[in-house]
Amino acid sequence: QDKTQGETPLMAVPAGYAVIRDGKLCKFIEPEEAAAVGLLTGSLPITDITVTDRNGKDASLELNQGSAEITPVWGGKGQLKGLNIQAQVSASVLETDNWQQGSSNEYINHLTAQLESAVSQRLSSLLRTSMKLKADFLGLAGQVERKSPENYRLMIQRFSELLPGLELQITVSGQLSHTNDMKE
Is the pTM of this model over 0.70? Predict the structure, then answer.
């Protein structure tokens, strides 16, 4: 749209993801989980996330950067046992009620820990959905194959058959880059 007319330009945002298997919808991933999908597929959208500050009040954060590294865990040649997921996310503070209370570093550390916990929970929930459905809608098999092509070729079972029994280790490292909160 033309900004000279005072209208805001249109922007596409994920409205969730449909998981389709054999031509049928088997699960809908809600928009809140879009960040987790984006982290695992390398296409993290700018996403708002709400966490709780030390006083139990909501704080709005905007995820603006992130990535996830997936490392397969092998129990022997061709024996996939699990996946280690290491995610890094960066966010800015959009709005909070209590920025001025307490030490600024303590407050930032608390919000960062809350961010890491929220992202970890979303990743875990999304991966458990994939495991439950035995559906690799996140392209995990391709990532495992690229990391360990020789071991992958030696696998006896298909990745989707192994998926429900894989052990998951999720680590999230977060950083608050700046604040957009006008009250600060």
Answer: yes
Helices 104-133 & 34-41, crossing angle to 10 degrees?
Answer: 80
Asked if residues 67 and 42 have their Cβ atoms less than 8 Å apart, the reply is: yes
Q: Which residue has the tokens 């092998």?
A: 74
Report d(CA 93, CA 49) in Å as an integer: 10
Instruction: Give the whole-angstrom CA distance, residue 51 versus residue 99.
Output: 14
- Using 50, 70 and 90 to split pLDDT, how confident is the model at 34? confident
Per-residue model confidence (pLDDT) at position 184: 47
d(CA 35, CA 23): 25
Q: How far apart are CA 100 and CA 183, in angstroms?
A: 9
Distance CA 133, CA 82 (A): 17
